[in-house]
Amino acid sequence: MNSVRYQIENNLSVDEFIDCLVDSTLGERRPVDDHKRIAKMVKNANLIVTARVDGLLVGVSRSISDFAYCTYLSDLAVKKSYQKMGIGKELIRQTKIASEPAKLILLSAPAAVDYYPKIGMTRHNHCYMLNNVDDLK
């Protein structure tokens, strides 16, 4: 396999992003059938790090950062045939470097819960989510 090239690509193609999400299984939990919504996700992220092999997008880290205090890594996707090669870990590393000194924060997909501690990330038990404003009491 040719070497993987990592770079910041804040103008990533929406179709490439969708393809990577679908092929990584993250597409199961993302609105990949809603092109307009995915386009907003790409447009409004301010830190996108990609992994490419011979120009082919094989992995992506999509984040929102203030580049001072926190970086929320919203999507980490690596195509199935490129998983278990260290690409996800390197995408996280590149995202952290690009957003220093901000703390990197992410919500794990259920299938990846055991992955993040293995690469040195710390589990945090105090995360809360609100999906619907009507749920506020």
Question: What this model shows, in words?
Answer:
- The structure is a single chain.
- The chain is an alpha+beta fold.
- The protein has one domain (5-135): 3-Layer(aba) Sandwich (Aminopeptidase).
- Helix content is 27%, strand content 24%.
- The chain contains four helices and five strands.
- The longest helix is centred in the last third of the chain and has 12 residues, at 87-98.
- The protein is globular and about 55 Å long.
- The mean pLDDT is 93.
Q: What tags apply to this protein structure?
A:
Aminopeptidase; 137 residues; alpha+beta; 5-stranded mixed beta sheet; 4 helices
Give a short summary of the structure.
The protein contains 4 helices and 5 strands; from the N terminus they run βααβββαβα.
Biggest pleated sheet: 5 strands, mixed
Radius of gyration: 15 Å
Tell me the name of the CATH class: Alpha Beta
The CATH architecture:
3-Layer(aba) Sandwich
Order of helices and strands: EHHEEEHEH
Count all strands and give the number. 5
How would you classify the helix and strand content by structural class? alpha+beta
**Into how many domains do the coordinates divide?**
1
State the helix count: 4
Q: Give the low-confidence spans.
A: none
Report the span from N to C terminus.
54 Å
> What's the CATH topology label?
Aminopeptidase
Mean pLDDT: 93
Q: Superfamily at the CATH H level?
A: Gcn5-related N-acetyltransferase (GNAT)
Strand content: 15-25%
Large-scale geometry: globular
Strand order in space, largest sheet? 1-2-3-4-5
Helix content: 25-40%
